[in-house]
Design goal:
The protein has eight helices and five strands, in the order βαβααβααβααβα. A five-stranded parallel β-sheet has the order 2-3-1-4-5. It is α/β, with parallel strands linked by helices.
């Protein structure tokens, strides 16, 4: 089985991935951020480095998915390859931070790549307001995230809403991070686990 957790920057994807993997006894697959050679450059000059960053993410996640499909294991994954195209690359193009030429090239590569993979058995979307995102980003204190603009986070939220509303690749569970504190409240985590089991196994 393959569960994937999606959401904006600071929504709590990594924390929920860790908690679910521990509870279910599954293998966690995390987004590789700290070793990304383009991330700091991107936040300093988005227009110059947007295409490079997105191609790096696309290749990294494709390699991760190929490994997942090779192994007969239960996986909880932090972020998906779909967000690269439908959220981040599209948003960068609309904001004028990725040229149309680069964006069309990127989409062509994305289309070819996704023809070789299968979607997760369950997609969990952590929906969070901008204040919640900002609070989480500030709490974890990553230097390269300090300059993220509020309008950037807001635009990403709009993209997530659009994508999730049209998602038809498989089962979907939407969780409201503004009202759930699964990191500190065991009852909230228990509620989430119940909802996951209901979606995965059809339990009512």
């Amino acid at each position: 089985m393959h569960i994937a957790i999606v959401g904006n920057i600071g929504a709590g994807k990594t924390t929920l991935t860790e908690l679910l993997a521990k509870y279910l006894g599954w293998d966690p697959q995390f987004e590789v951020v700290d070793h990304n050679p383009y991330l700091e450059d991107f936040y300093s000059d988005m227009k110059r480095w947007s295409f490079n960053l997105q191609i790096y993410f696309l290749n990294s996640r494709f390699n991760q998915l190929i490994e997942i499909q090779k192994q007969d294991r239960n996986i909880v994954q932090d972020r998906t390859i779909y967000e690269d195209a439908y959220i981040f690359a599209e948003n960068l193009h609309e904001m004028g931070l990725m040229t149309t030429r680069d964006y069309e090239n990127y989409l062509s590569i994305f289309s070819n790549i996704t023809s070789f993979i299968k979607p997760p058995d369950l997609l969990i979307y952590l929906k969070a307001s901008v204040p919640t995102l900002v609070n989480n980003i500030q709490r974890r204190g990553r230097e390269y995230e300090a300059g993220i603009r509020l309008d950037y986070l807001s635009k990403l939220n709009d993209k997530y809403t659009k994508w999730i509303n049209s998602y038809q690749e498989g089962k979907l569970l939407v969780l409201d991070k503004d009202t759930l504190d699964f990191a500190n409240n065991p009852e909230d985590l228990g509620l989430i686990i119940q909802r996951i089991e209901r979606e995965m196994h059809g339990l009512f």
